[in-house]
Every structure is written in structure tokens, then in C-alpha cells.
Design a protein that fits this description.
The complex is a heterotetramer, with two copies of chain A (about 300 residues) and two copies of chain B (about 325 residues). Helices cover about 30% and strands about 15% of the residues of chain A. Chain A is built from ten helices and ten strands. Chain A has helices spanning about 35-40, 60-65, 90-105, 135-150, 170-185, 185-190, 205-210, 230-240, 250-255, 265-280, and strands spanning about 25, 35, 70-75, 80, 110-115, 120-125, 155-165, 195-205, 215-220, 260. In chain A, helix 4 packs parallel to helix 5. The two termini of chain A are about 30 Å apart. Chain B is an alpha/beta fold. Chain B has two domains: about 5-50; about 55-310, Alpha-Beta Complex (2-enoyl-CoA Hydratase, Chain A, domain 1). Chain B is built from 14 helices and nine strands. Chain B has helices spanning about 5-25, 30-50, 55-60, 70-75, 120-125, 130-145, 165-170, 170-185, 200-205, 225-230, 240-245, 250-255, 275-290, 295-310, and strands at about 80, 95-100, 105-110, 150-155, 190-200, 210-215, 220, 260, 315. In chain B, strands 1, 2, 3, 4, 5, 6, 7 and 8 form an eight-stranded mixed β-sheet that branches. In chain B, a hairpin with a 2-residue loop joins strand 2 and strand 3 (about 105-110). The longest helix of chain B has 20 residues, at about 5-25. Chain B is globular and about 65 Å long. Chain B starts with 6 loop residues before the first helix and ends with a strand. Classes of the chains: A alpha/beta (about 300), B alpha/beta (about 325). Chains in contact: A-B, A-C, A-D, B-C, B-D, C-D. At the A-B interface, strand 4, helix 4, helix 5, helix 7 and helix 8 of A face helix 6, helix 7, helix 8, helix 9 and helix 10 of B. Bound molecules: zinc ion (2 copies).
């Protein structure tokens, strides 16, 4: 778990638009075309040449999904502690301070209320540019609170995930966030409120193995890497090449793991349709079903 | 093969044994000398094991001869009867489950199983489950619920297996589902980390009302080796990583991640498996008895609350 | 390619069409003659289809051009949105499912899907599901229950696929489980046999409160070909077997196996798919409205009772 | 489905001991050893030479499982009708009359109450020697009644299956027995009474795809053929050889489909242990669990 190579990167990708003159143009990772950065941003970070879905900053994602002026921020009041007094080549608090400064938020997730084509939702959007979207106590608590509050306020929950896994600097406490976020979703289930997870590139490790894959519906963005163990770890373990497209969204669709792969331009519309369909069930009170005995 | 820090203990043991043989062969009386050495041995073991570094504990947790899941199933439960298969993908030998009596009470027991020798290790995939293992766990949780059987899980895995088939079959999906299913159990559940609690692959069967751990067992978000490989770009820095990760029983008790530490016999469970297993049995019987006063709703609520409150953070 | 007994109809249609062309080209008035022929055509179609043998009905049920599951999903439902995958083994193209509105009501709809051409037939495995198809059905039943969505299934399959992987993955197990899961739905369920209802592979998604069938559809314990191969040791005796098996809509209505026969347009659904599908829609809307007065417990009880009482026997 | 080649056999196996002098000795199907028939019978129809488990007559099976003098017959009052007026080379009623006469029972199943090492059980034992153990209306009804009565009388249910599948001479009515028997098991589930199915050679088609595989526990006898589609059907479909051991009990154990493969000599003891374990749960009333949301 915890593919947190991110912390080691010399020049972490910011995710925000780079305002330096050199940043006006950029090369597409996928097709190598030179693209004008503003065009990419205007196109929801989808390459106009090859349709490659670049990683999307949190603010842009919220703008993509929330109806105009409807987003109300919930998260942001919690900041990491250093329960292990974790030091590798640098103390954990120093690393966190630096990335907080860079990303201008206390940790790797943003949550809030919004309307999505008029539907009341709670949004959970992970920030991969913040320490690789790793899940420690703050991310776990924010996701948990968002799920609980969504249930209280009769909102559907949409989680847009992007994560390198658990945050190892908080040790087993990070691991426990997998159970904590899973349990938090029960509040929604009990009220039969839809929870849809949107898996974006990359969603890995402890986040994939907890709330990300527990959506009533699970959708993915094109070509997103979605896995438990990262490709490098697997390659080191099995010492052989991985199949073409392995662990990518389209591969997982074939393997039966996601409901659909949805291009970013259609994402909002599709989510809205799902919500209308899932919330249009019989009004009548239907008691809990009995549990199937054994499969 | 003893662990490196056990070398002085082993040497002393050899010396005592030699002395005994000599006394017997030569017909001389060395009782006093031997007794002295035995006292020294006892002291040495106590000192050594009282002052283990975190990395040394990792080694003890993985030591050959340490009782494995199956050892417990066969010795502290009565009539253990294995139930095979997940009804979908296969039967994972790395996760063994079945019905048994624990001091007369029917229970459903699941154990992650490493091998006791090379051949078994290969058969058990070194205790690393594929998705079928977690699917089997989910199936057995269903069965436990249906027949009101308390659930006991014994945790001992380096982690869920990272392989091609495992990913294709949704390793992440089944771990998440197993966590959820276990959190929904309408019966009491107790987990014991008996060796290595390796990340999500361990937690998948660790969402219990009470989580116990043996004195020299570990529970961690990542193995020290992998952690070192990432942070120091060198897996031989694992000792450093083990320190940083705070993965010992005492650390975890302080962090609230486990509820109780079960003492091992002096010298570690691998030096006295029978005694170690009896201690685990004692703890299980005690804990189960204490849980019996609750109702189904309370077991669920307690389990949820327990995990709901794990995590440390500050206000901005 | 018309079915053999349709040959006279096709010839007459050709004649009318030729006559029309001739009249137009030559500028002669053949209105009366054409009208006469058209009346004859209408009579011929009625007579032919009113007197189909059971084996001929089998052919109509399988006729090319007959609307398939996906045709219904796309034409009589609004906003059909496919949900893929079983979260375990894969995504079976032979069983399509998803959310949709039926005249404004959210429903969960499942359809067994044969191909509309050779390429699609191969992709859809000729409508024969693997275990992942039935696992997907079970998953969608769960989802329907959770969100109170009525369930509609469209049945059209030669049967569950008989193959190595299908057996390895527990074809029998998932069919049984799908039958059980569907019987437990806490929402109303309606099944329509739109083409071929092939044995257990069909019944797996046919445990509904109301089971409807199109006039020329069939529902059978075994295909006429296989039955003939066993009983007459010759699969070309299929027409005999079809007679013996009593597998037509009217037969099944008499046996109590279906609750309602939906008339097809004259000449069969494949000669007028739009009209056939509209009739199915009408029947679904009616039946669903009628079921709405019940509660969850009543839907379950009704469904159980319905199947509980199927069977005929005498006292010794 | 419906692999009812049985009806075509010229000399159907009787299952009972053949009392003619020529029948004193027989050749084991598996190892070709000449065995004294009485030895085979005394050995529960397991070959003393190679341990091959021969098909077992119903009476012997009941004797194997029921404590002495505890079996009370429930079935036997229902006999097949001919709802389709089915005729192939012979009318269905004629065929049935002949096999009824031969097997001395009205159809292919025997049910009843018994004690099994003191545990109260209902037994359902299928007779493969009766028309290939095919399931028509009578078999479906007898299984259904046995399940319902077991629930009423607080008995666990043990079903020993052996079947060629659905009985095609009763057409779709046979097919419906799959749903009927499945639904009948609900009465046991609701009372949390254990249902254990014992799959013996051969268990195929509609029986496998209904009550046979819905046991809380499912066990199989060594080398039993257990399948949905028979090997011949599959071979004809895929036109290639089948893997070694395909669809046999041990193969299914590896594939995760059965809880265990149990030699006949240990069967009673093991069933008794399962029942003691499953019925030894907490006495406390535990309300129904809520149904898992998805998956
Ligand atoms: Zn590009
Ligand atoms: Zn033999």
C-alpha cells in the first residue's frame, strides 16, 4: 500500500495553472502534442488533440460538477497531527507544511454541499496534488463527516477519488481510515441515499480498498489507473510484464468492476441521470430485506 | 535458525545441554553449575526480549516456529471443521475458515495462514490472500450471522497478494467489501493479531469488537521493507522504517488501534508455542464472555464506534 | 430470409410490389387488383399465423428481425442507462441490465440479449449467459431492492451457456442463487418472455410476480432439438419434440406457467417490431400499475405462492 | 438440462442387490476388480479395492444416515400425472408405470424424518435408479413438503441429491420445480434451521441449479459428477476435450464450490458434527441483518 513516491518528488506537479511564461504551452503526456495551456483548461483538462484525460485540480472538478454558485465548503477546518513523530529524511510536519502552503489547503480532500443539475449532493473531491492524495486521519475524518452530514441533510454523495493510498507517515492510524470511511457510508445506506464514486487517475491502495469501491454505482474516467497494488509493485513481485491496459478503467469495465467509463465532458450529465433514476424509486416504505443466507 | 539477537541465548542453551551430557557421561555432579547457568539463561531471555527494538520485534513476529493460524485452530479450539471455497473464484489456502467450539461455544473462526515450512509456504502463498480468500471470509461472515455464531479471526499476513489475477478479480473491491461485511456482523467478533498484521489485507478481517495482539506481533500500514524502499530508496533501511512506523503491540495499544496486548512466554511464542496459544485462548474466552452481555444492535454500534473514532488531527 | 412457411406470404408481397412498380412505370391503374391482392395477403397472414404448428412458433420465436432485448430497452423505456459488470468475474454481454424510466417510473430492467447480426451474435454469445451474467443480475436485484425500483426482466435465451469456464465458475450455483435472490425481491417484478425462454437459464431471471409471454414466444425445459436428440436420437425430429413439449404461449397459459399472453401484430413481431414492442409496453404499464397496490411483504408472498403451486400430480 | 438418457436404457441398473446367481460377483467400474457383491454392500457400496464410491440405493443411504429405527417415511403418497400427454416412442404413463414397478416407489425421491446421531433431521434422498433421478412435479412437491415440514417440526434438512436434471416429459412444469424447491427452503432459512446438501454421483441440470446448491453447507462424495450441463453436451458445444477431473467433486472443491468432499464412511459423523456446530449458536434472539447494499 501507500505508493507515496510523491513525497520524494523534486518538483511536484502543482495542478494549478502555472503562470510563468514558460507554462503557457505544455506537451501532452499522451500524444506529445504542444497544447496551449488555456485550451486544455477550457477543455476540462482533456487534450484537444487525443482526448487524454489529464489529472484535474480540485477547483476545476468542483466547477465541472456543481451548478453555478451552489458549492458550499464543508472541509478545511482539520489539519494533520504527527502522532508517530515520523521522520524519514525530514519530519512529517515539515513536509505537510510545505504541501499545505503549495496547495493552499490543510489536507488532500475537499468536501462540501452542492447542487448537481438541481439534485442535492455532497461532494468529496480528492486532491492528488496534495501528497499524492494520500489518506491519513484528516482525509478519513473529512470523508466520514461528509458522508454523515450528507445523510443528515438528505443528500446523495458523490466521491471523486484520486489517491496513492494510505499515508504511511501516520502509520496504522492511516490504515484504520479504511474501516472508518467504510463504516461512515452506512449512514447513507440506512437512509437509502445514493452514493456514487467516480474513480479518476490514479486511484490506488487503501482508498481503492475502502470507500472508493463501495459506491452503489462506480464509474471511472477514461484510462484512469485503478488498482490495489500499483503496477511497479506487481512487476517487482511477479517479475514479468503486465498485460496491455492492465488496471486501466476500460480493463476494469471488462472485468466487471465498474458500472461504466465516462468521458469527463459527459460526467455531470450522467451523474445527474443516475441520481434521478436512483431517487425515483417507489415512495412506499419497503422494510429491510432479509439477508441472503449463503451464496 | 535462530534470529541474530537470539544468538547468545542459543549459545547458552547449547552450553547447558553440553554440560548435562558431560555430567551424565562422566558421572559427575554439575547440578549447581547447571542451575546457575539456567538462572543466567532465564535472565538473558528476559532482558533480551524486554529490550527488543521494533525491527527485532518484526523478526520475532515472523520467526520460524511461531505458531501459525492452523496451529491455533487445531490446538485451542475443539472440533475445528474447515469450510472451503468462496462459491465464485476458488478456495484460497492463505485464508482458512470453519466451524469450531471454543470451550463449548460454537464459533466461526477464520485464520490467515502462512506456511510452517517451504512447501506449505508455497501452498499458502506465504499467507497472502487472493480475492477468493476475502470472498470466502464474506461467505463465512454471512453464515455466522445466519446461525448466530460469534466470529473469531486470527490475523497473520504480509498483506493481500499483489498479482495480476488478484487485481483482475478486484482485490481492492473484495477487501472493501470484507471490511463492510465484517462491520455489519450481528454477532460479536474478536480479532487477534498473532504475527504480522499487514495493511489492508489484514484489516479486511480485522473489523472486530475487540482487537487483541500478541506481545511480539506487529500491525502496520506498510511493511518496513516497502516503506524503506520508498522513503530511503533502500529496503535494507527497514530497521529505520520499523522504528518510524510504530508498529509494535505497545505502540498500537497507545494509538488505540488494539484493545489489549497478550503477553507471550519469555523468549517469544516461537520458543513456547503451547503456552502462547493457551494465553490466546484464555484471552479469547475472557473477551467473548465479556461481550455476551450485549445485543446485536449493540455489537454493531460498538464496532462502528470503535473504528469511527480512530484518527488524530488538530483544528486549523 | 423468410421462414419456410412464410414463403407464400413473401411471394404475394413481392407480387403486390411488382404490380405497383408496373403500374407506376406503365401509367396504368391497377388499384383494384392491388387492393384485392392486399386483402388476400392480409387473410393469408392471419390464416398462416393462426394455424402455426408448435415447431413453426419456435421458428418465429427465433426469427431474424424479431425485436431483441436491447430493442425494447431503447424503444419502450426512457433514458435506459446500462450498468456493467458483476464485480467478480466480468461483464456478460448476453445479459444487459440497467436503470430506466417506464412511463416516468424508475425501474431496474434486465434483458437477455441475442445478436441482431452475426457479429453481435458472437459478441452476445447467442444470448447464452455465463455465470457473470447471473451474478450481474443478482447485483442489480440488490440495487433494485435498496432503491425501491420495480424490476422488469425480458427473457430471450436458448439457455445458460454450457462451457468449461461456465461450469468452473459455478453455472448451476449462480442460477440457483439468482432464482433465490429474485424470489426475495421486496419490490414488484414482472418478466416477459419476448422470444425464447430456454430452461434454467431463462428461469434464473423469471421468478416474477407476473410472467407474461408474447404470442409467438416459447418457454421450455429443453430445446426441441436437444429433446429430439435424446428421445428420438435424432435432432431433426425437433418438430415432434416441439409438439410433445407444449412450449407455446397458449400451452403455457393453460399450464399456469405464464399469467398473460401478449398478442403480436399479424404476421409476427418480426414483421412489425414497433407495434410488438408497443404492445409489450402497454402490458408492462398495466401490470405494474396493478401491482402497485401491494406491499413488500405481499409482493414476496405473492411471488412465492405463485411458484409454490406449480406442478401437477395425483394421489397414489 | 434434462440428461434423461436413462429412459432409453435397455437394461436399467436396479440399484438393489441382484439376487440371481450371476449377480453374486460384480466388476468394479473403477478398478475392474471382481468383488463379491455382498462385500460391496456391506462396505456401503464403496469398492474395497479402490475406494470408488458406487451409486447407492436409497434404502442403503437412509440406513447409512438415520439412527437405528428412527426413520419415519413422509413421501410416497404422490404419483406423476401426465399433464402434457407426452409421447415419444412410448407414452409417459407407461414408462412411469414400468419404473414404479421396478423401483417400488411412485417417483424419484424419498423423504422422511429421522435422527442422525441424535439430531432431529428431515432427510431427502433422491433415487437415481428411478428415471435417472429426474425432477418433475412429484419430486418438486415432495422436496417442497419435506422442507416445509422440517421447518414446522424444527428439524434440520439433509438432502442427498442424484439426478439427471429436470424431467422433460412434464415440460415447463418440471422447470418450475427449480423455483418451487428454492422457495420452499425459505421456511428453513427464516427459522435459521440448517440445510445441508450432499451431492452424490451424478447431480446435474435443474437439480444442481436449484435446491442442491443452496445448502448452508454443501458437501460432495468423492469423484461425484456435479454439473449444470453434462460433459457430453459441453463437448458437443465446444468441440474439444475436457480437462482431467472436470466437474468432479474434487475439482469443484478447488474451484470453491463445495465446503468439502467427504468419504461415505465419514459422512454421518461429519453431518452430525456440522449440525451440532451450526445449532450451537448464541441462544439470544438476533434480529435479521440488513441486506448488504451492493455486491
Ligand atoms: Zn494529447
Ligand atoms: Zn474398485
Amino acid at each position: 500500500m501507500a505508493l507515496e513516491r510523491f513525497f520524494r518528488r523534486k518538483r511536484p506537479t502543482k495542478g494549478d495553472e502555472d503562470q510563468s511564461p514558460a507554462g503557457l504551452w505544455m506537451k501532452c503526456d499522451a500524444c506529445s502534442a504542444q497544447i496551449y495551456r488555456k485550451d486544455l483548461v477550457a477543455n476540462q483538462y482533456v487534450c484537444p488533440e487525443c482526448r487524454h484525460h489529464h489529472r484535474m485540480p480540485v477547483d476545476a472538478r468542483i466547477q465541472l460538477l456543481a451548478d453555478d454558485d451552489t458549492f458550499e465548503l464543508w472541509s478545511g477546518k482539520l489539519t494533520p497531527r504527527d502522532p508517530l513523530q515520523f521522520v524519514d529524511t525530514k519530519p512529517y510536519p515539515e513536509r505537510i507544511a510545505k504541501v499545505q502552503d503549495q496547495q493552499q489547503r490543510p489536507d488532500a480532500v475537499v468536501t462540501g454541499a452542492a447542487r448537481l443539475e438541481g439534485e442535492d449532493v455532497a461532494l468529496v473531491v480528492m486532491d492528488f496534488f496534495f501528497a499524492g492524495g494520500s489518506m491519513g486521519s484528516v482525509v478519513g475524518e473529512e470523508v466520514t463527516r461528509a458522508a454523515e452530514r450528507a445523510a443528515e441533510e438528505d443528500r446523495s454523495l458523490i466521491a471523486v477519488t484520486a489517491s496513492g493510498g494510505a499515508r504511511m507517515q501516520e502509520g496504522a492510524l492511516s490504515l484504520m481510515q479504511m474501516a472508518k470511511t467504510t463504516v461512515a457510508l452506512e449512514a447513507l445506506s440506512e437512509r437509502r441515499l445514493p452514493y456514487i464514486s467516480v474513480l479518476t487517475d490514479p486511484t490506488t491502495g487503501g482508498v481503492t480498498a475502502s470507500f472508493a469501491t463501495l459506491g452503489d454505482l462506480i464509474v471511472a474516467e477514461p484510462n484512469a489507473l485503478i488498482c490495489f497494488a500499483g503496477p511497479r509493485v506487481i512487476q517487482q513481485t511477479i517479475k514479468q510484464d503486465l498485460p496491455e491496459g492492465f488496471q486501466r478503467a476500460e480493463f476494469l469495465l471488462k472485468k466487471g468492476m465498474v458500472d461504466d467509463v465516462i468521458p469527463r465532458q459527459q460526467l455531470k450529465e450522467r451523474l445527474a441521470l443516475y441520481l434521478r433514476l436512483l431517487r425515483g424509486g417507489l415512495a412506499k416504505e419497503v422494510p429491510e430485506v432479509e439477508r441472503a443466507a449463503v451464496i | 535458525m535462530p534470529l541474530s539477537f537470539e544468538q547468545p541465548i542459543v549459545e547458552l542453551e547449547t552450553k547447558i545441554s553440553d554440560m548435562r551430557s558431560y555430567a551424565a557421561e562422566q558421572g559427575v555432579d554439575l547440578t549447581d553449575e547447571i542451575q546457575l547457568l539456567e538462572q543466567r539463561l532465564e535472565r538473558l531471555k528476559k532482558e533480551t526480549f524486554a529490550n527488543l527494538s521494533r525491527w527485532q520485534r518484526v523478526q520475532v513476529a515472523r520467526a520460524p516456529g511461531r505458531p501459525t493460524g492452523m496451529d491455533y485452530l487445531q490446538s485451542i479450539f475443539e472440533d475445528f471443521t474447515e469450510l472451503h471455497g468462496d462459491r465464485a473464484l476458488g478456495d484460497d489456502p492463505a485464508l482458512v475458515g470453519g466451524l469450531a467450539f471454543l470451550q463449548g461455544q460454537s464459533v466461526m473462526v477464520l485464520a490467515q495462514q502462512k506456511g510452517r515450512d517451504t512447501k506449505e509456504n508455497i501452498h499458502r502463498n506465504f499467507g497472502m490472500s487472493h480475492p477468493s480468500g476475502y470472498r470466502k471470509a464474506i461467505r463465512l461472515f454471512d453464515l455466522a450471522d445466519k446461525f448466530h455464531l460469534p466470529v473469531i479471526t486470527l490475523i497473520d499476513t504480509p498483506g493481500a497478494y499483489p498479482g495480476i489475477a488478484a487485481e483482475e478479480q478486484g482485490q481492492a473491491w473484495v477487501i472493501a467489501e470484507s471490511i463492510r461485511r465484517m462491520s455489519r456482523l450481528r454477532v460479536p467478533a474478536i480479532s487477534v493479531v498473532i504475527g504480522e498484521g499487514g495493511s489492508g489485507g489484514a484489516l479486511a478481517v480485522g473489523v472486530a469488537n475487540r482487537v487483541l495482539i500478541l506481545e511480539n506481533a506487529i500491525y502496520s500500514v506498510i511493511s518496513p521493507e516497502s516503506c524503506a524502499a520508498i522513503l530511503w530508496r533502500d529496503s535494507t533501511e527497514a530497521p529505520k522504517a520499523a522504528e518510524a512506523l510504530r508498529l509494535t503491540a505497545d505502540d498500537l495499544l497507545q494509538l488505540g488501534i488494539v484493545d489489549r496486548v497478550i503477553d507471550e512466554p519469555v523468549g517469544g511464542a516461537h520458543r513456547n508455542p503451547g503456552s502462547a496459544m493457551e494465553r490466546v485462548k484464555g484471552a479469547l474466552v475472557e473477551e467473548l464472555a465479556a461481550l455476551m452481555s450485549l445485543t446485536s444492535d449493540e455489537w454493531i454500534r460498538q464496532r462502528r464506534e470503535r473504528f469511527r473514532h480512530l484518527g488524530e488531527f488538530d483544528l486549523v
